[in-house]
DNA sequence: CCCTCGCCCTGCTGGC
DNA sequence: TGCCAGCAGGGCGAGG
């Protein structure tokens, strides 16, 4: 499922087809994902030129020369299809560029979203207004985690999924980062030692950066006619590996936290 | 404010 | 082979 590295990889891949390009045509096949598409989406995008691409947390940003930014979220099953051979069932939005490239936003489970936001007011836009620091940015420090975790009794894992604390972490990479930092996912956040938080920040950065690097190589394979953008295989240490051996000699376990699966190793995560 | 829980959606998997 | 329950989960709102 698309998490931050997949969104980053998708944005970089799309940039090659969109940056500097005029949007010649926009087709909407089904006008709602999680929410209805914004009114006037087709009209506002058609004829606009893409000035730059970006990402905030798990949202992709397509900036245009009309001071409007198309903001997309891939939800659980969203992906951009590059030069699809034919339009398929879940290709909800299709963009054709001035030089004839076709890009289709496909989302079977429709947990994704598409919005149009004034570029100047992006940081104040609803979902962005209360977001915490980017996990790959300089604002995410052990000190930031120490301050936001102070006095909190909730387990650390669901807190790391809270976008107000760190923006862009999902279930997979939280499991992986906690494993790498050797922290129990059910540890009370306010009681984690500073030394462990000092391990957690670089662990978060490393799992994300490694996945982006892996996706970067996959994109070259995918960015071909009928190719797909947004997924790549990763070698996770704990996620989806219940019962598998951990490198420490333990066995990967699984339990539910806040209604979703947490994978971890009881032997090396303390 | 803090924390937990349930809902949204649909394709896929596993059990019978 | 066919059917169906269960699972995946980010974001958001409700409720304690």
TrEMBL record:
NCBIfam families: fpg (TIGR00577), PRK01103.1 (NF002211). It comes from Novosphingobium album (ex Liu et al. 2023). The gene is mutM. InterPro entries: DNA_glyclase_Znf_dom_DNA_BS, FPG_cat, FPG_Glyclase, FPG_N, H2TH_FPG, Ribosomal_uS13-like_H2TH, Znf_DNA_glyclase/AP_lyase, Znf_FPG/IleRS. Its EC number is 3.2.2.23, 4.2.99.18. Its cofactor is Zn(2+). Monomer. Signal peptide: none annotated. It catalyses: Hydrolysis of DNA containing ring-opened 7-methylguanine residues, releasing 2,6-diamino-4-hydroxy-5-(N-methyl)formamidopyrimidine; 2'-deoxyribonucleotide-(2'-deoxyribose 5'-phosphate)-2'-deoxyribonucleotide-DNA = a 3'-end 2'-deoxyribonucleotide-(2,3-dehydro-2,3-deoxyribose 5'-phosphate)-DNA + a 5'-end 5'-phospho-2'-deoxyribonucleoside-DNA + H(+). DNA binds at residues 90, 109, 152. PANTHER family: FORMAMIDOPYRIMIDINE-DNA GLYCOSYLASE (PTHR22993:SF9). Keywords: DNA damage, DNA repair, DNA-binding, Glycosidase, Hydrolase, Lyase, Metal-binding, Multifunctional enzyme, Zinc, Zinc-finger. This is Formamidopyrimidine-DNA glycosylase. The keyword DNA repair applies. The lineage of its organism: Bacteria, Pseudomonadati, Pseudomonadota, Alphaproteobacteria, Sphingomonadales. GO terms for molecular function: class I DNA-(apurinic or apyrimidinic site) endonuclease activity; oxidized purine nucleobase lesion DNA N-glycosylase activity.
């Amino acid at each position: 499922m698309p998490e931050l590295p997949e969104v980053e990889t998708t944005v970089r891949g799309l940039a090659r087809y969109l940056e500097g390009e005029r949007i010649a045509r926009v087709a909407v096949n089904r006008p709602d994902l999680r929410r209805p598409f914004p009114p006037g989406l087709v009209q506002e995008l058609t004829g606009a030129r893409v000035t730059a691409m970006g990402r905030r947390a798990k949202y992709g940003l397509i900036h245009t020369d009309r001071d409007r930014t198309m903001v997309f979220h891939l939800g659980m099953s969203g992906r951009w299809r590059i030069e699809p051979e034919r339009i398929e069932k879940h290709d909800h939005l299709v963009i054709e560029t001035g030089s004839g490239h076709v890009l289709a936003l496909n989302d079977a489970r429709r947990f994704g979203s598409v919005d149009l936001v004034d570029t100047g007011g992006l940081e104040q836009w609803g979902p962005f207004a209360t977001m915490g620091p980017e996990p790959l940015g300089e604002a995410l420090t052990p000190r930031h985690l120490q301050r936001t975790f102070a006095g909190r009794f909730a387990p650390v894992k669901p807190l790391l999924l809270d976008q107000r604390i760190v923006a862009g972490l999902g279930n997979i990479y939280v499991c992986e980062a906690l494993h790498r930092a050797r922290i129990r996912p059910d540890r009370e956040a306010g009681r984690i030692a500073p030394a462990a938080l000092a391990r957690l920040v670089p662990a978060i950065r490393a799992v994300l950066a490694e996945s982006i690097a892996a996706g970067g190589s996959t994109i070259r394979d995918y960015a071909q006619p009928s190719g797909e953008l947004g997924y790549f295989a990763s070698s996770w240490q704990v996620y989806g590996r219940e019962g598998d051996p951990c490198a420490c000699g333990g066995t990967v376990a699984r339990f539910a936290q806040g209604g979703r699966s947490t994978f971890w190793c009881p032997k090396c995560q303390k």
